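Posting for a labmate who doesn't have an account.
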Amino acid sequence: MSETTGPPAALDMLSWSCPAPLRDRPRVVMGHGGGGVLSGELLEQVVLPALGGPAPAALTDSAVVELDGARLAFSTDSFVVRPLFFPGGSIGDLAVNGTVNDLAMSGARAAYLSCGLILEEGVEIDTVARVAEALGAAARTAGVRVVTGDTKVVEAGHGDGVYVNTAGIGVVPAGVDLRPQRVVPGDAVLVSGAIGVHGVAIMSERENLRFDVEVESDCAPLGGLVEAMLSAGADLHVLRDPTRGGLAASLNEIAAASGCGVVVQERAVPVPPPVASACAMLGLDPMYVANEGKLVAFVAREHADAVLAAMRAHPLGSGAAVIGEVVADHPGMVVARTGLGGTRVVDMPMGEQLPRIC
């Protein structure tokens, strides 16, 4: 690994701020957007009570609702990534794939998207055009149509070039029931491929880091992979795309919602060498680094081989691996068995190791 801007001091680590300050602060901090403990507290203590009605049993990235006899998945997401363009993708790709993948985690085939653009006064029209072109190309690749939208402009200095919001709807096939409450001890835990790639790609662009092999974001639509897994006829219990907070956040969310424990074999988790090197240098844990084209699946143990084969037969699941299992011990907790034979607790992240990654 090498840098193009000189010695490591060029990273200016002293200027970095912690994204997870004390929780009794009266103001919003970066950690509230990280998908971890602070995000959960903001929702549970401020947002959900204000909306009224009972809180959902488990907060997921898409809701499954019934309308005139059809089961629909509905999701919305906002994207504030910095920089707008990065190795392997852009904010336009993220805006489409992020929402498509949230729908896919409910087993839905995404059908329609909306798109809201929030533009900062002074941003170059060419930049907006590049974002729009990337968004359109990603939608075509994912097989969805953008059918409605909105555009707003904020004053110079009150934005960051381009923010995007997308919402999507899709149809959940009959018989598909993916939710953490179906997880039981004995389930196998699978991931679809190498983790931490997106977060390191963003970091390398921000800090001008260079590696022997360029690290590109894994940003991709996962609908086709999920369809292949469902077609295997196996008993899938829950799916999750480990974006903000990484694999650790997704595993903790599922463990808490299911009331089961999760044991991960640390050496079985696929971490590419450039990601491992970058994380070691910066003191990060790959388990907490964001992904944008990977999923984690909990499946009945007797069906794990069939699901793994279906995943590996798909281009976006060729690196799939079984990384752990569900246990009755330590309910709601995730632990990792290390290569040295010990164990460590994999906590829910407080905030986010690297803000503004999606």
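Reply:
Got it, the structure tokens are right above this. The longest helix spans residues 125-142.
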